[in-house]
Amino acid sequence: MAEGAETASAYASAGVDIAAGDRAVALMKEHVARAGRPEVVSDSSGFAGLFRLDAAKKYRSPLLAASTDGVGTKATIAQRCDRHDTLGRDLVGMVVDDLVVSGAEPLFMTDYIACGKVVPERIADLVAGIAEGCRLAGCALVGGETAEHPGTMRSDEYDLAGAGTGIVEEDEVLGPHRVRTGDAVIAMASSGLHSNGYSLVRRIIDEAGMRLDARVPELGAELGEELLRPTRIYAGDCLALAAETEVHAFSHITGGGLAANLARSLPEDHDAVVDRSTWTPPAVFPFIAERGSVPQADMEAAFNMGVGMTAVVPAASAEAALAVLAERGVPAWKAGSVVAGTGQARLEGAHT
């Protein structure tokens, strides 16, 4: 037996299947090919992703923006449901929608998947979701890594993370420094839970003994299907909004909820006052609150409550902003305004 074969056999006895890894790579290639951009350059070695910086030529003083994130314990729900084709979109949304808050155009992403056992079809499903998310965001998937961790993760267990890079003109960076008194807060609807609060969700459903394959009338879907609903990706819509109207700031509403994340895009001497009566949270939120007896304050601290992204725009631009988003199929509404204050986002009133 050749030395390489002996090594592979020894590695397999330790729980690492090199052949399965090779098959997973072969299965994911067609998906990765759909998540490209003209600037992607093939690296025949496969050790790194190459991206031509032609995009920077149109900038006077370009800044690179970088972000990294994961999907948290939403992966546990996917593993319990044995459905793995949606998490990739969640991963991309968490990364690119952080990038676009500064006004940056997402250029490319890389991913990392750690698992207890490489099941090629499962890995291909995960990467297919990532590739689809990149396609929706207009960025390229230039590389990734799949690592098998036998003995430290169960054979059906995995986690995934990603990193993204974007580009923005230095004097066009969005943020608190642009926000002014009287600005309007535009809310963009979430598709549901997105990727936050799942530790609380899992505790509630486990304590209640709820089955993920049970149909829940008030949700109009099986519980697992609702919990795995993919994150809405806003990057392209936000870039279009900034190109067609004046935008002062964006906020990606993730862990910490609407108030905490919106406050990050406010200057220290201004507040945002948001009227809860301007929207009705999707059914999954009252479902969680009722089944888990979760107080409103805790719900708003853990979940997006139906708002996945906000834009702060001049009051005079609010209608134009809503028109742009409507044309792009993004449900949106004026949820509040900016006033003098101390850098807080205040939620007032009650949901309809």
From TrEMBL:
| Its EC number(s) | 6.3.3.1
Q: Which gene encodes it?
A: purM
Catalytic reactions on record: 2-formamido-N(1)-(5-O-phospho-beta-D-ribosyl)acetamidine + ATP = 5-amino-1-(5-phospho-beta-D-ribosyl)imidazole + ADP + phosphate + H(+)
* Pathway(s) it belongs to: Purine metabolism; IMP biosynthesis via de novo pathway; 5-amino-1-(5-phospho-D-ribosyl)imidazole from N(2)-formyl-N(1)-(5-phospho-D-ribosyl)glycinamide: step 2/2
Q: What is this protein called?
A: Phosphoribosylformylglycinamidine cyclo-ligase
Q: Which InterPro entries match?
A: PurM-like_C_dom, PurM-like_C_sf, PurM-like_N, PurM-like_N_sf, PurM_cligase
Keywords from UniProt, A to Z, are: ATP-binding, Cytoplasm, Ligase, Nucleotide-binding, Purine biosynthesis
Protein family (similarity comment): Belongs to the AIR synthase family.
| Annotated source species | Streptomonospora salina
Q: Where in the cell is it found?
A: Cytoplasm
Q: Name one GO molecular function term.
A: phosphoribosylamine-glycine ligase activity
Q: Which residues form the PurM-like C-terminal domain?
A: 181-343
GO cellular component annotations, sorted alphabetically? cytosol
Pinpoint the PurM-like N-terminal domain residues: 64-168
Which residue ranges traverse the bilayer? none
Gene Ontology BP terms:
'de novo' IMP biosynthetic process; adenine biosynthetic process
